[in-house]
Structures are given as structure tokens and as C-alpha cells.
Amino acid sequence: MKILLYNPDNGVTRNFMPHLWMFLLKALTPPEHDVLLIDGNAQALDEEGLARFVREHEIGLVGIGAMTRMVAKAYRMADAARAAGVPVVMGGPHVTEAPDEALGRDGGPRHADAVALGEADETWPQIVADAAQGRLKETYAPVDAAGKERKPSLQPYPSIPWESMDLDQFNIIPSFLAPMLGRVGGGWKTFRIIPVESGRGCPYGCEFCTVTGFFGDSIRFRTNESVVDELLRLKARAKSEGGQVAVFFIDDNFAINIKRTKSLLRDIIAAGAQVYWTAQISANLLRDEELLDLIQASGGKWIFIGMESIDPANLDDVNKNFIKPGEYGAVLERLARRNLLAITSFIFGLDNDTPGVSLRTLNQLRQWPAGLPVFGQLTPFPSTPLYARLEAAGRLTRPKHWLDFAPYQMAHTPLKMTSAQAQAEVRQAWTDSYSPAAISRAVNSLSQSPVWLRISLLLGRLSFRGIYFPQMGRWAWLKVAAQNRRVIIKLVGAAIKLWLKSWREGRAFRRALKKIDDSTHGGVFMKDRKLQIECGRCGKTMSEILTEVEARTIRDGIGPVYRHCDCCEKTTGWIEAAAERDATEGAPQHPAAARSTSRSSYDRPVAHGQERLATTSERDEMEAMLYEHDAVQKKK
Ligand code: B12
Ligand code: SF4
To answer: Alpha carbon 444 to chain centroid distance?
Structure first.
């Protein structure tokens, strides 16, 4: 059977990242079925287009997942698929919270043949089997034989074959820039943000949030190995394409168990599985300096912090008083010291908010290191304690706001201002934070920071602007670029200067290397060659074709090369085998070789195929060795 999994567009922004559920369910589908994926945010589709697609591809089952804000579109698409004669199953947070709506049991029209409640990891294979036999049930709930809700343990966790998936639609690099960017740094032909979960669940139970109700308050984690393996595969794919990858750890609170997070980050570092990553972490968990060091060392770049309000009374009201506005500044300083950018999220329209809340918040934000602020209005999602409270108090002005979705429109009246005022506060905050002057001010405030951080902040600000101000087409982007041309030109200039400097340094470095080669080995390493190497950990030997740089690296004792060792069952550092060393005995020895043959120093586990460029400090170290070597040669 052919299955189409479809996620509707949100109608406001283009998607920068695939939705995990589709890829996860595809990985969990029994192999005899063929699964096609369409993310409406990346590949626009209307009702007619969907009906045509299911007919042309002879789809036997359509699966649709949606958040509340996209559910109206999801229903329209489901109606179109059903009208084309294909059964529809719907899942995700909204239908879990309001299943009767999708099934037409609340007096409204029916949109789905079946709904998958809650986490569908274990029910999905059954749904597919039932659909294949034409006997779909109305409701699938993850329960055990006694009818008790069962949450997937995430151990084992399915291996999502990211390396072979078609991810073309999620490449953020525009095609006209790809050839040029392919030559920059380690290659930027492609840049994708991939969702990876390392755990599920959050015990905090904030009043407006659906997570504690949906995923539960017991937290489950994948094994470190399974997460590290996924990162290594993603990294290998990006490398093979001459591109880059960033990972969004979509856990609701990535550091909810700090000990576990630290151990995961240590394992990522040990395996050389660092990629750029972002995650959501609540402010109370960002006090731990060691955690922050590990975040930085493991590739962390952007941390999303749900700050919600600078007013403690508001946090009390929504059961989120475990975070303290008084310590936001310190948290952000700690992140800034490590070049980590914070995405700070605020909610307006809380019960203690009064007109002027956006200005007060913006004034506070200006005291803190620049980051990426985002603003929204308090939204009562179905089945949340907030929804129940407002409903009981008769304060819901649009109880089924999702059926008539309008971006940034309130669905209830706050206590100390009107809905219109709350909406105006949200608009003011976005306008003030994302004007060309504000963007330029933010980027310039990082003038003492590395250029890449300033570029990251600029690109972040330009993209995040689109969350509120529609900028979906190429023209809209050109307009934004033109408005922000001053800061863009300034940064491009700084980046070119830096690139020229590192290119000149690289040329000098290559010359120095060549000089050593010529004097030490008569230039024999100018081409790829086969060498006997031995595992620095267990001593196993093998014959391996090394690149010029690798051969130089181990011959000159600058460092090991990294390969998988079958004996050690992991990637280890390999050095020149004793037999090879004996064969070249008599050749002038690099002074660094003697001190760098200590086995333990070769045991730096970097994954197979994950060889990387030297870091600045490693390069400095190598350069020091080379100059030392030059000096010895000159004396001779
Ligand atoms: C990643 C994420 C995002 C990304 C979305 C992009 C993306 N490509 O993923 C970003 C950061 C952009 C985002 C933004 C927002 N998000 Co968000 N987001 C999440 C987050 C953290 C993870 C989603 C995820 O991948 N989960 C892991 C997967 C495996 O779980 P899942 O999607 O629920 O899927 C499982 C089941 O639901 C089921 N399932 C899902 N779909 C389907 C379909 C079928 C057919 C079947 C059978 C089963 C099934 O099977 C899956 C496996 O068990 C969730 C919280 C969470 N932990 O889920 C919030 C969450 C989904 N977001 C939420 C909200 C409110 C928002 C925003 C509206 C916030 C705001 N105020 O701006 C925006 C709106 C975005 C937009 N413009 O459309 C709410 C949604 C609540 C609701 N009832 O709709 C959530 C639940 C968080 C919360 N605090 O309550 N979000
Ligand atoms: S900490 Fe975040 S995920 Fe957890 S309940 Fe609060 S808002 Fe939801």
C-alpha cells in the first residue's frame, strides 16, 4: 500500500525544518508499504493538488498531523482526500486534545476516518495493517491490555534513515548561492536544520502548555549511543554533500535531567559527533557552568529560553514560577561568554500585563546581551489548564479559535487590558526588535565577538523577522536585504577580510609543510599513498591509503589519523605502524614524533569519515612544532 503523510502549511512562515513525526512514522512503517511525505510548508499544496496527488500516486492511506493552529487547513485537506476516496487518519497534539472534532462526534462535520491519540510510535504499525485490510477503527490509543496508557520508552529508538532521505526541500541555502558557498570553510552548499529528539516529557506543567498533558510528566530518554549515531550519520551526509547540518533537539526541556544531558554531551564530544545545535532549556537549568561549557564544546549555538514575562506575578499565574526574571540577565551573560546566542521567548496578554508591557520588556532586553527575541500572545490551547480556567471564568472570546485561525489574534480577554491592546503590544515588540536600526544595533553590539557570531545573529534576526512580518517570497527577502543593506555590507566586508587572512595564513602553513616534506622525506608524500598504520589503542595494524595530509600528519608525528578499529569497536587514532617506522629508519626524525608517540594521545575518538579540519588551537600547536622543526634543521 502507498501511504501519504502530510503536514499542512502554517500559512505564515516557510518551514526551515522538517516535521519529525513524518520521518519517525515513515521509519516505523512495515517495509512492505511505500511512504511518501509532503510538508506543506516546504511544498505548497491546496485541496485540489492533494486530491490529484492521491489519485495519481494511487495512495491507499493519508496520514495528517497538525498543531492546533494548522488544524483548520488539515481538516480541509482531509476532506479533499476523503472526497477522492482515500481513508484519512489524523494524529498529533490537536486531534489528541479534541478527537471528537476530527471524527465529527461533536455535531460538526467529520474529517477523519480514524484518529491516533497521543504518541503513535506503537500504534502506527497496527493502523497501517488495519488500513491495508480495509478495517480502520475510529480511535487508536496507546494502551496496554488493561487499558492503561502506555508511553513508548524510546529505548530502542528507530533509526531514521536521514542519510538516504530526500531532503532537498529543506536546504536553506538558495540554489544561486550554493556553488559559491560550496567553497567557503568546510563547504556550505547545503545547510539543513534537522529535528532530533533525545527525550520526551516535561514535569513542570505550565498552565498554557500542552506538553505535560500530552507527553506526560515522566521523562524518557533515548540512549546516548542512539543519539550519537544519528548525529554521526547526519554529519556524514552533510560532509558528503559539501554542506553543513544543524540539529534542533526538540526535547521540551533538553536539560531537564542535567546529569543525563551532561553525559550525552560528553559522549557527543568523545565521538566527534559535534554538529551545530539548538535546544530548548529553561532558565533555571542554565545556572550550571559545567553544563554551559559542555554545550559550547559539543557544538551548541542557539539556546531557546521560554522567559514568558519579566513580571514574577505573571509567572505565578501560569504556574511557571520555577524561573526567576531576576536571574535572566545573569543567564544570558553566561551564555554570551561562551558565544551562545539566546532565543528569548515572551508572552503578552498575561493576567498581570498592562499597556506598556512591550516597552518595559524591550527596555529590559536592551540591558542584556543581544539575542533573538520572539513574542506571542497568550493562547488557550484545548485541554490545557489555561483553557479550562478561562472557559470556567467565561473569558474565552473565541472558544474554537483554531477553526477560524488568524495569526496573533487573541482568543480571550486579559484582565488588565483589552485584547486589542495585547495584540498591539505584540506588534510593537516585533516592530521595535526587528527594524533595520534594531538589527544593526544588535549586530554592532557584538563588535568584540567573532565574525561568525555576528553573521549568525544577523541571519537569525533577518529570518526570525519573518515569524511576524510575512516575507515568504524572493522579493520579500530582497526587500528585507535592501532595508538592512548597511549592516549586511559591513559584515560581508569583515567576513572577506577574515577569509583573506586565513587564506594567507593557510598558504604560509602549506609552504612550511612542503619545506619539511622536501627536507625530511624527499617529497614522497605529495600523492595519496598506502601505509601500514597501527591502532594507537590496541596496536592492531592495517594497510590503508592515506591522503597527502594524513600521511604527513602521522609521519611527522603531528597527530594520528582516525579510523574505525574492529578490535576496539570504535573509532580510534592510528599512527604509523612500527614496520613502516623501521623501514624509514635513518630518515631524519621530526622532533615532535618522539613526544607524540604516547599511545593515549592517539586515543581521541573521532568517528570514521568524520575527519575534520584542525581547530585554531590544534593548528597553532602544529605550527609551533613545525617552526621548532625548522629551527632544528637550520642548526644542522
Ligand atoms: C519542534 C516544535 C516546533 C517547531 C515546528 C517546526 C517543525 N518542523 O517541527 C517550531 C519551533 C517552529 C515550533 C513553533 C511553534 N510551536 Co511548536 N513545538 C515543537 C515541539 C517542541 C516538538 C514537535 C515534535 O517534533 N515532537 C516530537 C514528535 C515525535 O511528536 P509529535 O509531533 O507530537 O508526534 C507524535 C504524535 O503526536 C503522533 N503524531 C503526530 N502527527 C501525527 C500524524 C499521524 C497521521 C499519526 C498517525 C500520528 C501523529 O505521532 C508522533 C509519534 O508519537 C512541540 C512539543 C513537543 N514535544 O512535541 C511543540 C508544539 C508542537 N508547538 C506548539 C506551539 C504552540 C507552537 C507555536 C504556535 C508557538 C508560538 N506561540 O509561536 C509555534 C507555531 C509554529 C508555526 N508557525 O506553525 C505546541 C502545540 C500545541 C497545540 N495544541 O497545537 C507544542 C505541543 C508545544 C506546547 N508548548 O504545547 N514548534
Ligand atoms: S517547561 Fe516548557 S515544556 Fe515544560 S510545561 Fe513548561 S512550557 Fe511546557
So the answer is: 26
